[in-house]
Amino acid sequence: MDRKTRILIGKPGLDGHDRGAKYIARALRDAGMEVIYTGIRQTPEAIANAAIQEDVDFVGLSLLSGAHNHLFPEVARLLKEKGGSDIILFGGGVIPEEDIPGLNKAGFKTIFAPGTSAAEVVNFIEQEIQTR
Amino acid sequence: MLSSKADDFARKVRSCDTRGLARVLSMVENGHPLAHSILHSLYNPERSCLTIGITGPPGGGKSTLTDRLITYWRGNGNKVGVIAVDPSSPFSGGALLGDRIRMQDHASDPEVFIRSMGSRGHLGGVSGTTRDAIEVLAAASYDPVIVETIGVGQTEVEIASLADITLLVLVPGQGDEVQTMKAGIMEIGDIIVLNKADRPGIEQLEMSVSASFELIPDQAERPPVIRCSAQTGEGLDKLTDAIVSCAFSGTGRKATARKRTTLILGSIIREKGRELARKLVSDRYGSVEEAIESILEGKTTPYEIGEVLSGFLENKQENRE
Ligand SMILES: Nc1nc2c(ncn2[C@@H]2O[C@H](COP(=O)(O)OP(=O)(O)OP(=O)(O)O)[C@@H](O)[C@H]2O)c(=O)[nH]1
Ligand SMILES: [Mg+2]
Known about the structure:
Number of helices of chain A: 5
Bound molecules: guanosine-5'-triphosphate, magnesium ion
Number of strands of chain B: 8
Largest interface: A-B, 32 and 33 residues
Distance between the termini of chain B: 26 Å
Number of helices of chain B: 13
CATH superfamily of chain A: Cobalamin-binding domain
Shape of chain B: globular
Radius of gyration of chain B: 22 Å
Largest sheet of chain A: 5 strands, parallel
Strand content of chain A: 15-25%
Oligomer: heterodimer
Structural class of chain B: alpha/beta
Strand order of the largest sheet of chain A: 2-1-3-4-5
Order of helices and strands of chain B: HHHEHEEEHEHEHHEHEHHHH
Strand content of chain B: 5-15%
CATH architecture of chain A: 3-Layer(aba) Sandwich
Order of helices and strands of chain A: EHEHEHEHEH
CATH topology of chain A: Rossmann fold
CATH class of chain A: Alpha Beta
Shape of chain A: globular
Number of domains of chain A: 1
Largest sheet of chain B: 7 strands, parallel
Structural class of chain A: alpha/beta
Number of domains of chain B: 3
Distance between the termini of chain A: 17 Å
CATH topology of the largest domain in chain B: Rossmann fold
Helix content of chain A: 40-55%
């Protein structure tokens, strides 16, 4: 059996800056993972649907526009509703430190600070896979 | 092939439980031990689902076109399945699967199921399990199932044998290429789509394509050539008309069922034959690598190993008699 780690990288919200998201997506590909990139300005519904259909192990969200406190938990809620509560969530972008505990509580395993290296993200994924 | 677990999964597919269906597709892709039992329970050679293949150069507009076709069939009330294949990196084995970006119009429509696949080392423009994934989506009553291949070079034509109808997408700027293309690549298109007709160079492209078909004496044998723009939507109605009439002029359900079954059994025989032969070689020499060492040390030759394998097949036959 040849199981590949599958990850969805999505951008909810209105900002159109996806350089960071694409950079992470490419790094994960180069680490041997299958990365589904869904593009900018996705609704939480669209992201959750795609994650279920693509049967991913992880969903990573990136957001620069500041609506994370609403959009991130909404994706988590929809994923649970659609039977994807075992999918591991992580986030990144511009997220103030004081918002992180709330997002953790909403189901986000980790929130990467701006300037996180791709290697750190790859590390996180690999560790989570091992402890699964 | 009786496994209640496999039957459970098959039931989930048939009842179109999205999570279950997605899981089964992964099992099929990963070569999970239950995959063939599930496929066994789902396989229906005379299924009526139409399979449309879309192939063409990288960036030719295959995904954008797929998005338009989804809109058309959703308008007719059909549930639409999509398999979008992108190349896996030969170095890392990873893949960046980005075809969904162009299909966002349907991202929240529960009646549209889109699945991205890495080619995972398979040559031919699709992955080794695309064929099986089509059967799974058909069993979940998606109709049509649209398969977008990776951007083709000139040898990646496997889609033509998997799909009922194959669209070959060409774009302006490819006129010269068309003339030098090997005969094969033009032949795989049941319909030739001249996309990006909103761009300059479309006339020239159409001339080259028409010229390449002049060699076919019988007009009726020439595939329809349709100009359109997946971006503006212009000409899309002509394309969907052509697909629909092509679907009905086909060889008929019985013949299609036979063709599909021949193809699937053929590739299973190839795959299992290879596994069996490898196993026999390993049993005797430890592993294929060790067999190679033995050959290099002058103890045997590839041909003697071939003889050993033939001998095994003959013994099998004798044992039966
Ligand atoms: N002008 C014009 N641009 C188009 C048309 N169709 C697609 N495009 C653009 O061409 C680019 C590539 O389109 P895709 O649909 O991603 O092409 P593709 O063949 O799926 O690409 P790969 O999957 O990467 O091989 C995008 O920027 C589209 O917006 C068209 O009819 N006219
Ligand atoms: Mg594409």
